[in-house]
Write a structure and sequence with these properties.
The chain is an alpha+beta fold. The protein has 10 helices and 10 strands. The longest helix has 30 residues, at 65-94.
Length: 316
């Protein structure tokens, strides 16, 4: 393996700029340093190498033979490094990585992202599942769509849609008990996700305190969308957010027997690092998404915290 022990990078940068300009003053202006600081860094490099790199004359500096050899290689190295950084930055600017909550991705974003891509064909989109433990730490995630009530510091957040929820079921299941006329009628049917706290919250709002849901088997689906599929199949009553099932309701695959929707403050948000607010690709996606959301807030929403699940204690 090659020995890659190098002199301090600031010293190499100062030398390369001074050698290119043949002027410590012009090098200082380029690097945002003082002339004295450039001179100090060059002397530090000369001491490290044990050779003179410049011949210093009044109002003029010239390169020694050793300085000329090093200047050529240093210039090539910095050019190659700048080119690599530029290529990486360009590729990053060409791809928008969206980490998205499962329910939002499958019921809304997946059906609409094509419109965004048509409007911005030069920007590739990569959609990945939301992962609380690595939201912005890995996978080069640019933005995330999450469900919850608050978020950690350093992230900007925009409200998209409230998680207000209500029971839904298939028409056939409703007919099996002669129709659903009162909230109590739901208790005669299988309840999907009976341990979901949303059920107790909705029944309390409907005037039924402590309904008996214990006879229902507990099945954790992990996402509201999966519970909706069970409801469509007639396997029980699910507690869902109507915004995501407007087409399903319009087709008659599910019915919403009551107008009552309970809002416990949970919602879906668009979030991204505050320091990246003005990145072009983030701005383009934000400006496309927010006008389509019923509860969108253009100014950043207050800091809110997300959770690592797609269901239970946070909105799915």
């Amino acid at each position: 393996m090659k020995d890659r022990r190098l002199p301090p990078l600031p010293a190499l940068r100062a030398f390369e700029a001074a050698a290119r300009h043949l002027s410590f003053t012009r090098a200082a202006n380029e690097l945002g340093m003082t002339q004295a600081a450039v001179s100090y860094q060059v002397r530090l490099l000369e001491e490290k190498l044990g050779v003179k790199l410049f011949l210093r004359r009044p109002r003029k500096v010239t390169l020694t033979d050793a300085g000329s050899r090093l200047a050529g290689r240093a210039g090539e190295a910095f050019d190659a490094l700048a080119e690599a950084i530029s290529e990486i930055a360009e590729r990053a600017d060409e791809t928008l990585v969206i980490s998205c909550n499962t329910t939002f991705a499958t019921t809304w974003l997946g059906n609409h992202i094509g419109d965004f891509q048509m409007k911005h064909p030069a920007l590739a989109v990569r959609l990945i599942p939301y992962n609380f433990n690595r939201a912005f730490g890995e996978d080069d995630v640019d933005v995330a769509i999450v469900a919850g009530t608050s978020i950690e510091p350093g992230l900007a957040g925009h409200l998209l849609v409230s998680a207000a929820f209500t029971p839904m079921l298939s028409p056939g299941l409703a007919e099996s008990v002669g129709g659903i006329r009162t909230p109590a009628d739901i208790l005669a049917l299988p309840i999907i996700g009976p341990d979901d706290p949303w059920w107790m919250q909705w029944f309390a709002a409907a005037g039924i305190e402590n309904p008996d849901l214990g006879h229902n088997p507990v099945t954790r689906m992990g996402a509201q969308m999966l519970e909706a599929h069970r409801a469509i199949a007639g396997q029980g009553v699910a507690i869902l957010t109507p915004f995501f099932y407007r087409d399903v309701l319009a087709r008659g695959d599910l019915i919403q027997p009551f107008d009552l929707q309970y809002d416990n403050g949970e919602a879906w948000h668009l979030v991204y690092p505050e320091r990246h607010r003005n990145q072009r690709k983030i701005r383009l996606f934000r400006d496309w998404l927010l006008p389509q959301m019923p509860d969108a807030a253009i100014p950043p929403a207050p800091a809110f915290a997300t959770a690592d699940s797609d269901r239970r204690s946070v909105t799915p």
